[in-house]
Amino acid sequence: MSVKFKMTDVTKSYKDGKETKVVLKNANLEVRAGEFVAIVGPSGSGKSTFLAIAGALLSATSGSVAIGVERIDAYSQAQRTDLRMRKIGFVFQSAQLLPYLTVLEQLQVITEIGKGKDKKAQTAKARHLLTALGLTDHHQYPASLSGGEKQRVSIGRALMNNPDVILADEPTASLDATRGYQVVQVLAEEVHRHQKAAIMVTHDERVLPLVDRIVRIENGSLHEVKRS
Known about the structure:
InterPro entries: AAA+_ATPase, ABC_transporter-like_ATP-bd, ABC_transporter-like_CS, ABC_transpr_LolD-like, MacB-like_ATP-bd, P-loop_NTPase. One of its GO terms (cellular component) is plasma membrane. The protein is an alpha/beta fold. It contains six helices and ten strands; from the N terminus they run E-E-E-H-E-E-H-E-H-H-H-E-H-E-E-E. The protein has a single domain (3-224), classed as Rossmann fold. The chain is globular.
């Protein structure tokens, strides 16, 4: 399996008055196509900073990050924005759907932002993704959807640009246990089906059986969790 995401010796530090606060310390992580990795750890351990660097939203102080074959640590802000559109799909804590767009239009808007794409083919792709995610009525508005259905739409939206990497930030935070498990199960199935690399930051231990690997972050350091 090809490597879709690679973080090598990444350190992130901030100046806090006269002191230097180190949030990530020599972090290393490699995720291959078809792998679903969970990042766990206590509040303040560096999970948000890790995800921001992985998603090309924040620059590391040192070290390197690669999405597919692209090294992004030296990219300009414009290059990072372009890379996020081409290579990264995001699933957030809340679905963040636009209330005035239908389920289908939530995915089509990704096509509108992109350039040089066949709109008809992209609409067919959106319909296929939604149906595969168990959403058969593509003309519903967010107000008529359950929390779990909204998150399924957000998973479809994350897959629309055919990203190398999917980053999920606490996707079960606003859901009850049953719906949270179902959403992560759907995400895992899509990651394996489409051979994406996925990284999910979560506090929800109930969904950990659904991931392929667990990495714990504590005091800015990453450590693989061995499973029995």
